[in-house]
Amino acid sequence: MLAPYVRLFATPGTRAFTVGNLLARLPIGIFTVSAVVMIATTRGSYALAGAVSATGLVAVAVVGPLTARLIDRYGQARIALPATLVAVAGALSLAACVRFGAPDWTLFASHAVMATTPNTGGMSRARWAHLFRTDSAEDTAARHTANSFEQAADELCFMSGPPLAALLCTQLFPESGTLTGAVLLLTGMLIFTGQRGTEPPVARRTADRAAPSLKLRALLPLLVSFLCVGCVFGSLEVATIAFADVRGQQAAAGLVLACQATGSAMAGLYLGTVRPPSGPVARRFARCAGAMALLALLPLGAATTGSLAVLAVALLIAGMGTAPTMVTGMTLIQRTVPAARLNEGMTWQVTALLGGVASGSAVGGWAADHLPAVTGFTVPPAAAGLAAATAFAVVVRSVWLGRRTKGRTQGRAEEPGKARRAAVPSGE
User: Fold this and answer.
1) What does DSSP assign to residue 279?
2) Of 145, 379, 417, 422, which has the fewest CB atoms closer than 10 Å, so is most exposed?
3) d(C-alpha 38, C-alpha 296), whole Å
4) Are the CB atoms for 193 and 76 separated by under 8 Å?
5) What is the CA radius of gyration of the chain?
């Protein structure tokens, strides 16, 4: 069963860059929680802590794609390591400002500087795509396994990072979580960028590389779909916390939410052991998104029982629909974005997810404040349904483009005149 992973990591250099990437990726789940706990503990204001965290999220949405574009243009080692040094400086500044009671505006500025943290998951996926870049069955299966592994790694980091941050900040001193995250980020990035043999080469300047990724119209529906998926995550988190709080069991909310990430990680690891199904990737993405939407109904049903244990089981099962959607969607992005813009395209995907998480948290928070706790669980399946509808629109568009291209090809083979004009829609 583990044979696909054994073959994957038999490639020279892959184990080393994976270790570095995991170390550098773990702080993503540490920094946000650490900042909230650190600021709320020392300044006595969750409002300030939330505002600083939100500012960092906005900064990531703006700076992240720009950093990724520079990585595509100049290479991972030349850009990612300096960007990491800037982010680490921001983390150290944030910890120092909290420790020495600096004005509130310095917290916002320091946290915004941390937005230069490179998208380590995207860079790792770009390396796998470069190592297994042919269309052979072996390389296609290897890319599928690699994307599945990366999705499971994402879930494990997001699942283990927040509890570790909370433990460090509460048991040692408030700044310990941020400082630990900075050390892990720098150490991991030094290891990762040191593996030059697996680094994708910088593509020569082409029209594909010069045009911004958002001008690639095929990418926009995918980003909308990932925005909806992020909304599922954000709203589900808030709904679960509110549900536990109403029952006086807020301390258990973290463990219940971890079940969702565990289910996704399990599904991701299993997905990597089986060969990718045949057929167009866009259709697989639509099917996976549809299955995720159906599974998102389980937490709603479980919430009506009033039991956190039943909800935990429902989240575990519902989480298993996340990884196939994310893995297939990432594969679709890799096939949509030109190779010279791959890091940027995958960073836009992360930006869309983060935007969805923020939107879902806002909607879920409003529902928690104004509606019964169970009602909050209606938001995740609604968002998942929108994700599935958008994914279906991607399929419709791909079929339409395929027929259009076929019509053009047939038209070129015919004599000029009526037959050629009939093959091309009016207005072209």
Assistant:
1) S
2) 417
3) 33
4) yes
5) 22
CB atoms near residue 251 (< 10 Å): 9
- Judgement on whether residues 155 and 7 belong to the same structural domain of the protein: yes
Per the structure, the complete domain to which residue 227 belongs is given by 215-428
CATH number of the domain within which 293 lies: 1.20.1250.20
Neighbouring residues of 301: CB distance < 8 A, sequence distance ≥ 6: 314
For 305, which DSSP code? T
Contact 67, 79 (CB under 8 A): yes
DSSP class of residue 67?
H
**Residue 20: CB partners within 8 Å, gap ≥ 6?**
187, 188, 189, 190, 191, 192, 193, 194, 195
Q: Give the pLDDT confidence of 203-219 residue by residue, as tens digits.
A: 665 544 555 555 556 67
- pLDDT 10s digits, 186-207: 999 999 988 888 888 876 655 4
Residues 119, 142 contacting (CB under 8 angstroms): no
**Helix or strand (DSSP H, E) at 14:** helix 14-43
CA gap 173, 281 in Å, rounded:
48
Mean pLDDT for the chain?
A: 79
Residues 405-418 pLDDT 10s: 555 545 544 444 44
Q: Decide which of 202, 224, 256 is a domain's last residue.
A: 202
